[in-house]
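Sequence only, no structure available. Ideas?
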Amino acid sequence: MLPSLVAALLLAQAPAAAAVPAPQPMPTGDALEKRIVANDARLFWGFFEGCDPDAVSDLIHPDFRMLHDLVGMPLSSGAQMIEQSRRNCADRAPGGKNEGYRNRRLPVPGSRRIQKLGDWGVLEEGHHTFHEWRASLEGGQGGWEMTGGGRYIHSWQWMPQEGRFRLLESLSIDHGPAVPYPPQTAAHP
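Reply:
I predicted one. Tokens follow.
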């Protein structure tokens, strides 16, 4: 066989080198804000109302940690966050110890602030309210009842090889009665 033919056959049989995606620049301006707002909505849907942590696990950084004003550091890794949420969702399922429990988190309009942190990532902060489904409220109908509120500060790290943000740290503070709308920290026109 000709040497060039042998080389071509060997190359054809060798496993293809895994293509490494090119780093992507972090979005800016409106694109950055839209991405963070969409991530925030997906994140809280997956962990609260939708109760599907596996559907949003791609948003959580492996080194994730959560700091909470009422309990300290309840979560110290992304895997721990996903696993704890799986257990909580299993408890809500038919036959679970909290069967039928439903909750919802709603951001307080006008309270969100998004600040770019160089090309590393983004700081997102705002106020939100928490709600639980009540099968029967006054008047005999079911509905959502506001049970409190708080403030959150999230650090989203840009992952250039993945072309997305991942939540690295969550500070959940100022829990108590829901803040009045508009919150005092919101910019007023």
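The chain has three helices and seven strands.
Hope that gets you unstuck.
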